[in-house]
Amino acid sequence: MSVAQYDAIAAAYQDSKQLPFRRHVERHTLFEALGDIRGLRVLDLACGEGFYTRLLRIAGAAEVTGVDISGEMIRLAERQERENPLGCRYVCSDAADYRPEGTVDLVVAMYLLHYAGSADKLLRFLTVAHAALRPGGRLVGFNDNVLNPPRGTVSWSKYGIVKTGPAVPTAGAPIRYRLTNADGASFEFDNCYESPETYRRAFGEAGFREFRWLGVSLDPAERGNPFWDDFLANPPVIGFTASR
Ligand SMILES: C[S@@+](CC[C@H](N)C(=O)[O-])C[C@H]1O[C@@H](n2cnc3c(N)ncnc32)[C@H](O)[C@@H]1O
Question: If we measure between CA atoms, which residue out of 237, 210, 240, 204 comes closest to residue 25?
Answer without folding.
Answer: 237
